[in-house]
Amino acid sequence: MPANGRSHARPITVLIVDDERTFGEALELALRHEKDLKVVDVTTDGDAAIRAADELHPDVVLMDVAMPGMSGIEATRRIKEDDPEAQVLILSGHEDPLLLARAVQAGAVGLLRKTEAVADVAVSVRRAYRGEPIHDEDEVESAMRHLRHRRDQDADVAQRLQRLTPREVEILQQMATGAAPEQIAQTLAMSPHTLRTHTQNILTKLGVHSKMEALVVAIRHGRVTTVDISEDEAG
After folding, report:
1. What distance lies between CA 125 and its chain's CA centroid?
2. C-beta separation of 103 from 73 below 8 A
3. pLDDT tens profile 195-217
4. Partner of 39 for a Cys bridge, out of 28, 33, 103, 114, CB 3.0 to 4.6 A?
């Protein structure tokens, strides 16, 4: 009997989730040639996937990662909370150690590229159903280390951003609009020399070497909201 405790006397039931319905339906059509697999539904978003999983109790879910609204990672987490026996395989357009780690943390058994041959997808579905690993243990451990390192970096950057004064955040916000230094100084009623001092303090606190790097960090972590910038405008 498979690790999930479900009988294998019947076909392995599969739920396909992809926001591109044509891709999902094409995958369903391709998997019809696998006699031991049965696609029970094709949905196009995370909410619909959760409802379908709750109603149909598929053995394996093939889950797109990038969807409008709820991500495939969050949908996976929700499905696993409702049905721990469901096995989820994340579908992605590319390999990414961070994505693999996030998928595993959400309860997925692995990550598959959308470019995989149908026969290889079918093999992975069967392995997932039987509770067999999809990835080498070393690969998963490496991905988890990568994720922990990234989170440590993000925590460090968040601490650095907290060191910025309200005035320094105002300057970054002005930079993000593409305003020239002279315009920023005039808008914030400060001298060009004072602006240069503040700018150098920003770079030092964030541990970066250019205003562009500072803007990228601030935007990525939500301290600056305007994202319509160019390298030339940012200086």
Report:
1. 22
2. yes
3. 999 999 999 998 888 999 999 88
4. 28
- pLDDT tens digits for 137-163? 888 888 888 778 777 777 778 888 889
Residue 91 in tokens: 């579908």
Q: Please give the Cα distance from 146 to 190 (Å, whole number).
A: 43
Measure Cα distances from 181 to 165, 170, 194, 203, 224 in Å: 19, 13, 11, 15, 17
Contact between residue 58 and residue 82 where contact means Cβ atoms under 8 Å apart? no
Q: How far apart are CA 175 and CA 150, in angstroms?
A: 27
Token pair in block for residue 96: 């990414």
On whether the CB atoms of residues 134 and 124 are closer than 8 A, the answer is yes
Could you tell me the residue range of the domain that residue 105 belongs to?
Answer: 12-143
What is the dihedral angle through the alpha carbons of 81, 82, 87, 88, rounded to the nearest 10 degrees? -70
What's the structural domain count of the chain? 2
Residue 90 belongs to domain with CATH number = 3.40.50.2300
Q: Say if residues 46 and 70 touch (Cβ distance below 8 Å).
A: yes
pTM exceeds 0.90: no
d(CA 225, CA 202): 17
Residues β-bridged to residue 87: 60
- Could you say which of 75, 108, 143 is where a domain stops? 143
* 66 and 180 both lie in a single domain: no
Give the single-character DSSP code of 11.
P
